[in-house]
Each structure stands twice: as C-alpha cells, then as structure tokens.
Amino acid sequence: MKTLTILALLSCPVLMHAQSGEYELNGKISKEKAPVKIYLTRIVNEEILVDSVTLQNGIFQFKGNVGGPSYSMLLMDHKGEGVDKLLQDPNTDKKMLYLEKGTIKLVAQDIISQARITGSHINKMDEQYREFLKPADKPIAQINEDYNKAPEELKNDKTFQNSLNQRYLLALSARKTLQQKYIIDNPESFLSLVALKEIAGDIINVPQIDPLFQILSEEVRNSPDGKTFAAAIEKERSLCVGATAPDFVQLDVDGKPVKVSDFKGKYVLLDFWASWCPPCRREHKNVVRAYRTFKDKNFTVLSIALDEPGSKEKWQEAIIADSLTWTNVADLSSPVNEAAKAYNIKGIPQNFLIDPTGMIIAKSLRGSALDQQLAELLNPKDE
C-alpha cells in the first residue's frame, strides 16, 4: 500500500469521535478482475492523505488508524488516470464512507459508487441520515439537472438564472429545516454534529448555531470534533456585531505599516479580497460606489489583499484597475495572512464595518446592502 500527502482540502469534512483505534476496510469488486488502482482519501490535520492499493482478483484491503469516525472517499481508477485527475473529475467513480475502529466490508459488482457497506455502525447511521434528507435533496438534484440540460443561451439568461436560484434557496431552506429536526430528535448522534456543521457553513451565525450545539449530548460536544467546532463558535462570537474589532498591522503599497486602530474616529469598511478573485473584483464596483458617495461623511475603506508572496505587481495593477483610491494593505511575505486569521476569513470577498469607537457594527455587506447600511448611519433622517 502506497501513502502520499497532498497539501490541499477535500470538500468533505474530517470528523472524529471517541472511538479511536485501528480500522480494516475489506473490499470486493466481483466483476472487475483487472489490476486497477483503488485510492482512499481522507483529511488528517488539514492535509489530504491518499492511500492506494491495486485490485487483485477483485479484492482490495486498506488498514490504518483513526482518531474517530473519519469521513473518507474511495476512488476507482478504471482508466489509469491517476489520483489528481480523479479528484478533479465530477464523474469519477467514487464512494463516500466513514472509517471507524473495527472491520468494514464493502461489496460491489463493477462500480464502486454502487457498493454496499456492512459491518459499520456509523455508516449505517449515515445511510439513514441521507435517507432522511432525500425529500430535500431531490429538488436540489432536479435544479442541477434542469441547469445542465438547458441550452447555453438559456443558461446565460438572467431570468432563468434567477428562477433556478430562487428554487435553490427554497430547497436549501427546506433541507436545513430537516437537519434541525434531525439534531433535535437525535442529540446523541454523531451525525447531528455533521448536520450542524453543514447548516453553519463557513460563516457561523452564532445566535442560530450555538443553541443547536448546546442540544447535542455532552459526549458529542466533548468529542475532538465537537471541541473543534465549539472553538470555531467562540472565534466567530468574538467577531459578532457589537464586538471590538481585532487590531492588526499590514504594509501599504509604499511599505508603510498601517493598523486598524489608525482609523479610530471614522467609520471604516475592512474589505478582504485578492487580485485573483473574480467575485472580489466584481464586488469592488459596489465598494467604489459607496466610497465615492460617503467618503466626505466620515467614512473610508481599508482593503486587505490576500495575494500570495511574490505577487506585488499583480496586486498593484488590480488596485489601479479597480479604482481603489483608499488605503490598501497586504502581507506579501507570508502565505498566512495574519489579518485574515484574526478575522477568521474562510472565503472572499468578505467585509466588516467598524464604527468610530472600533466596534464591529455590520459584516458581509454585499451590493446595495452596503449603501443602505451607510445611508442609515450617515444620512440622518432630519437632514
């Protein structure tokens, strides 16, 4: 068995529980006799671990250790394309499963995505959970199918796009409602933590998520993954509206240090972006409009670029192209931006509006929402 490490992230969560120990995964693909590769991928300490074995007379086996249930993915390389290509291809023959302490059996005829798993309590629970979500997942699948079947001209039609988006939002809301019911009805289940993390997403709505987290059993909350999620809630709580904005120091385009606290006494929008981020560049049109409207009313912008080391020229070109005439800072000396870390940035564009006292008063203001918020603050009704 060959093991390698890829410094990247799967779109699948790593999940742990108290049941740590050695796992054994025994697989049988009855109709496949060729020596094709089977890959097993999972995330450990924010790295993707990839194990591989060669199918021998339809049989394969993986062994290893887990700190608890670990969400993993099996990929079957029918054409010898290699793991990198398989991970990027949405049509790859793959099977999601949990690895846990003990022996897990997997049986399929020729396609691993249709495999049946036995001998695993957590995978049986996961199967029941997925079945519970089917009434919500079917409409989402239909929306994707409607989009994929549409001709290119229709795909680019704004009315069609808006219609699909509205359907998707309704279906997603229905899915979250089902997940909340699952959590309330199954507080002892490890999969309730899975459901809660799916509801929470990257930006945790603390008033909504924390009460649901407290519903979970003490065992689930105190599991390694439960403790990690609790820490994420507390981190987000420190960045809620009403919290004091964390200070940081970054260098501007001339190499001079700039701090958030330098802007005390003004309303300042912290704008997290990157020159390589198309949504950020599009959103800058809204930020520029708001800046030009309110810059003479005690408002300014501080843009923090999350560009990579060695990309100063691209950063400065983007500043000029997007007409960012306010203060711009970046840390181009390190792959880890401390400002982004301080504000728990999981995706960009993202922003925080800070008042003259240094308190966060709004966040995630996109499009016209930024203008509306600033108008309420800076255009008194009695004017």
From TrEMBL:
User: Start and end of every Thioredoxin domain?
Assistant: 239-383
What does the entry list under GO cellular component?
A: cell envelope
UniProt cross-references to PANTHER family, sorted A to Z? THIOL:DISULFIDE INTERCHANGE PROTEIN DSBE
InterPro entries attached to this UniProt entry? AhpC/TSA, DUF4369, Thioredoxin-like_sf, Thioredoxin_CS, Thioredoxin_domain, Thioredoxin_ResA/DsbE_sf
Name of the protein in its database record = Peroxiredoxin
Assigned keywords, A-Z: Cytochrome c-type biogenesis, Disulfide bond, Redox-active center, Signal
A single Gene Ontology MF term assigned here is: oxidoreductase activity
The record's Gene3D superfamilies line, in alphabetical order, gives: Glutaredoxin
**GO-annotated biological processes:** cytochrome complex assembly
Pfam families per record: AhpC-TSA, DUF4369
Q: List localization entries.
A: Cell envelope
Q: Which CDD domains match?
A: TlpA_like_family (cd02966)
Supply the source organism for this entry.
Chitinophaga niastensis
- Signal sequence range: 1-18
